[in-house]
Design a protein that fits this description.
Chain B: Keywords: Membrane, Transmembrane, Transmembrane helix. Chain A: InterPro entries: WH-like_DNA-bd_sf, WH_DNA-bd_dom, WH_DNA-bd_sf. The structure holds 2 protein chains of 2 kinds. By secondary structure, chain A is α+β, with helices and mostly antiparallel strands. Chain A contains 5 helices and 3 strands, in the order ααβααββα. Chain A has a 3-stranded antiparallel beta sheet with strand order 1-3-2. The mean pLDDT of chain A is 86. Chain B has one domain. The longest helix of chain B is centred in the middle third of the chain and has 31 residues. Classes of the chains: A alpha+beta, B mainly alpha. At the A-B interface, helix 2, helix 3 and helix 5 of A face helix 1 of B.
């Protein structure tokens, strides 16, 4: 049981962060607006959660301009994907153990 | 957190993964209608050829042009119906009709399909008509398989079915017409019905 708890990652311990990683696991990248719509988050809320995930290097951010509009794309890093998989496995084990 | 919360997390993860990568509002009903159009079109072509040219299709003649026109008409009505019904369903699901998932779906569908269509036009230009029906089935099947990653699962099996029918049709050139009827008519109705009951009626 202790091992399972160890794999529950604090960095994912929030609905929005879990959501960001879920989307980035199955898509090459996602734009800020897409994430916002999918997760139903506000600008500030999403920005702070992406920053937190970037800080631990689970996601990487690319900023560019399309015409004059700034466009932000988020990618999951290899490290982030591995950690997320571990986290989900741990969740599933916890449910089964009950 | 309790295990119920974890369960909720997992289902939310699954939901987001699907929603962000797959277009789920494909209408089964439009598949059924496309199949019916194909059957009507095929019946008309069959009647045209058998009643006007003693069973032989004289190429570049008037009958051939009418068969091509018939085919284009079936294609046009199928696409128009699919766009109309799918848009309506997407609206009901509160899904956006034109976003990253639909763009990806369409692009991956069109690449094999357009390559195939150009190839068929080229070999028609070389007076090789025999394999047209088989090639249509084959490329349509490949287009479906390629697009299936970005939409509901049943499309993949329709794709496999079309490819197999296309290959068998290529071996039995005399029966291409009937394989075309099964592939584009019957199979659309079968898979459309399955999708209708699985996804539409919720």
């Amino acid at each position: 049981m202790k091992n399972i708890i160890l794999n529950i990652n604090k960095a994912f311990d929030h609905r929005i962060r879990l959501g960001i990683m879920s989307v980035l696991m199955v898509n090459e990248y996602a734009e800020f607006t897409t994430l916002k719509e999918l997760l139903g988050a506000t600008d500030g809320n999403l920005a702070s959660h992406t920053k937190a995930l970037e800080k631990v290097e689970f996601i990487r951010i690319e900023k560019q301009f399309i015409g004059r509009k700034p466009n932000t794309r988020y990618y999951a890093t290899e490290h982030g994907k591995q950690e997320f998989k571990k986290h989900i496995d741990a969740l599933e084990k916890l449910i089964k153990n009950k | 957190m309790s295990s119920e919360d974890y369960l909720k997390d997992i289902s939310e993860i699954k939901n987001l993964m699907n929603k962000s990568s797959r277009f789920i509002s494909l209408s089964g009903l439009s598949g059924i209608l496309a199949g019916i159009y194909a059957l009507i079109g095929a019946a008309y072509a069959y009647w045209l050829v058998n009643n006007n040219s003693n069973g032989y299709l004289i190429l570049n003649g008037k009958i051939f042009q009418m068969v091509i026109f018939d085919l284009l008409l079936v294609g046009f009505f199928s696409i128009a119906t699919a766009i109309f019904l799918t848009t309506r369903k997407a609206k009901k699901n509160e899904e956006k009709i034109w976003d990253a998932t639909t763009r990806r779906l369409l692009l991956n569908f069109l690449i094999p399909l357009v390559s195939g269509a150009i190839y068929i036009i080229i070999i028609l230009g070389h007076q090789k008509y025999g394999q047209t029906g088989a090639l249509m089935l084959l490329f349509y099947g490949l287009a479906l398989i390629n697009a299936s990653k970005y939409t509901v699962g049943d499309i993949k099996y329709l794709g496999y079915t079309e490819v197999v029918l296309g290959l068998i049709a290529a071996m039995l050139p005399g029966y291409v017409f009937w394989f075309w009827v099964i592939g584009f008519g019957v199979m659309h109705i079968v898979y459309g019905t399955v999708m209708y009951f699985k996804h539409d009626r919720k």
